């Protein structure tokens, strides 16, 4: 989920990216100093100790006693891993580059999402081929590329399908052109499926630019506050992001969003914002629960580390960190979906869209429906 820093981009622009500028000074091996810097940075900037049930002062007292001036690099790295492990946060990372005296090492405390426990990387590719087959079997064309590389789409006579692979790495011009084309092609449809399963994230601005094409009126997308000090309430002022109709055509008929717990970061901001639209139903599994941009820093010894440092809140001020954006209809992909040649989430999404077109397209915001 790390995002490129954007060389030659002004600092004000860099702060809007999913990770911040690295701060790496001259290499100082001193294990005790490195421990102090790492612990104090998390103590000042990490906002989720209570939410993730971690007593950070106790972590200090437990692990500081194990660090001396004679602690080796390998021992220090292992101590850091043990101290950070209870956070179970996919945006927490520790990286040591290889050198003549040490091997390259990497640590992330996040537990594997259910989606990726169920399916290997190869099987995830097979699942999306099954998705295509299910669409074709329901009279859709095959998903086609657009000017924006991360958008794929197709349609049947009544319904449309958009897959969003990622939410970064595209110019505003290309994104606008792709969304204009999709809007024209989908103008007469009765409903749309938007698929963000296995989306690694990206930029909030791109997420909102896409959702604005499906927006009925100006609405709050989400709020965000940034941790700036060690106190429980040491945050910068709360900022609010908005959705607002854009483009010549806005699609405001029924939409189904497909998600899973392998949707991260900017993908979760997308889900958090689009769920505010009254014509959207979410099917699948909750998103992963790591919304923040990453703050990327460096230790005196040259190691790099990252942490979450922002709290995202829904329009009605609910924080889904550690839980993920919830669904309206819970339905999980399994290995057997590939064997059966049917993606059940596509089938259920089409069933929902057909039912909404058979009667009033009203949605009760807080309902939770489980699959039969």
Describe the secondary-structure layout.
Elements: H1 11-14, H2 31-45, H3 56-64, H4 73-84, E1 93-96, E2 105-107, H5 114-118, H6 121-137, E3 144-145, E4 151-155, E5 159-164, H7 172-185, E6 191-195, H8 204-211, E7 219-226, E8 239-243, E9 255-259, H9 265-274, E10 280-284, E11 294-298, E12 304-308, E13 310-313, E14 329-330, H10 335-340, H11 344-358, E15 369-370
Parallel strand pairs: 5-6, 6-9, 9-10, 10-14, 14-15
Antiparallel strand pairs: 1-2, 1-12, 3-4, 4-5, 7-8, 7-13, 11-12
Helix pairs in contact: 2-3, 3-4, 8-9
What's the quick description here?
With 372 residues, the chain is an alpha/beta fold.
Largest sheet: 8 strands, mixed
Radius of gyration: 22 Å
Strand content: 15-25%
The structure class reads alpha/beta
Number of strands: 15
Overall spatial form:
elongated
Number of helices: 11
Helix content: 25-40%
Poorly predicted regions: 1-17, 19-25, 360-372
Spatial ordering of strands, largest sheet:
3-4-5-6-9-10-14-15
- Topology order in helix (H) and strand (E) letters: HHHHEEHHEEEHEHEEEHEEEEEHHE
Ends apart, CA distance between termini: 34 Å
- Mean pLDDT comes to 90
Explained architecture:
This protein is of the alpha/beta class and 372 residues long. The chain is 31% helix and 18% strand. The protein has helices at residues 11-14, 31-45, 56-64, 73-84, 114-118, 121-137, 172-185, 204-211, 265-274, 335-340, 344-358; strands at 93-96, 105-107, 144-145, 151-155, 159-164, 191-195, 219-226, 239-243, 255-259, 280-284, 294-298, 304-308, 310-313, 329-330, 369-370. The strands form three sheets. An eight-stranded mixed sheet has the order 3-4-5-6-9-10-14-15, with helices on both faces. Strands 2-1-12-11 form a four-stranded antiparallel sheet, with helices on one face. It has a three-stranded antiparallel sheet with strand order 8-7-13. Strand 4 and strand 5 form a beta hairpin. Helix 8 packs parallel to helix 9 (265-274). Residues 1-17, 19-25 and 360-372 have low confidence and may be disordered.
């Amino acid at each position: 989920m790390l995002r490129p820093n954007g060389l030659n981009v002004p600092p004000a622009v860099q702060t809007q990216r999913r990770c911040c500028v690295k701060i790496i000074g001259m290499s100082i091996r001193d294990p005790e100093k490195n421990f102090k810097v790492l612990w104090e940075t998390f103590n000042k900037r990490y906002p989720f100790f209570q939410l993730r049930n971690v007593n950070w002062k106790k972590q200090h007292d437990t692990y500081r006693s194990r660090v001396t001036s004679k602690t080796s690099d390998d021992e220090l790295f292992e101590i850091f891993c043990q101290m950070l492990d209870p956070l179970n946060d996919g945006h927490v990372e520790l990286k040591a580059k290889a050198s003549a005296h040490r091997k390259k090492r990497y640590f992330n405390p996040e537990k594997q999402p259910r989606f990726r426990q169920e399916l290997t990387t190869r099987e995830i590719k097979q699942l999306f081929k099954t998705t295509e087959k299910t669409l074709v079997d329901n009279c859709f064309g095959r998903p086609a590329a657009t000017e924006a590389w991360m958008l794929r789409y197709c349609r049947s006579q009544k319904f449309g399908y958009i897959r969003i692979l990622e939410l970064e790495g595209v110019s505003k011009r290309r994104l606008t052109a792709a969304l204009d084309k999709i809007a024209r092609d989908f103008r007469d449809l009765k409903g749309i499926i938007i698929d963000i399963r296995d989306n690694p994230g990206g930029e909030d601005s791109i997420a909102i630019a896409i959702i604005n094409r499906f927006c009925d009126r100006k609405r709050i997308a989400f709020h965000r506050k940034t941790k700036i000090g060690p106190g429980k309430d040491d945050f910068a002022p709360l900022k609010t992001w908005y959705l607002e109709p854009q483009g010549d055509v806005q699609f405001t008929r029924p939409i189904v969003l497909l998600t899973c717990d392998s949707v991260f970061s900017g993908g979760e901001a997308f889900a958090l914002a689009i769920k505010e639209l009254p014509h959207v139903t979410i099917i699948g599994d909750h998103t992963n629960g790591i919304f923040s941009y990453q703050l990327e820093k460096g230790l005196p010894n040259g190691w790099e580390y990252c942490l979450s440092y922002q709290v995202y809140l829904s329009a009605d001020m609910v924080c889904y960190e550690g839980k993920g954006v919830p669904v309206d209809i819970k339905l999980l992909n399994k290995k057997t979906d590939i064997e059966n040649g049917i993606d059940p989430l596509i089938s259920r999404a089409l069933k929902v869209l057909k039912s909404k077109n058979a009667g009033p397209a009203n949605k009760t915001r807080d309902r939770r429906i489980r699959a039969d």
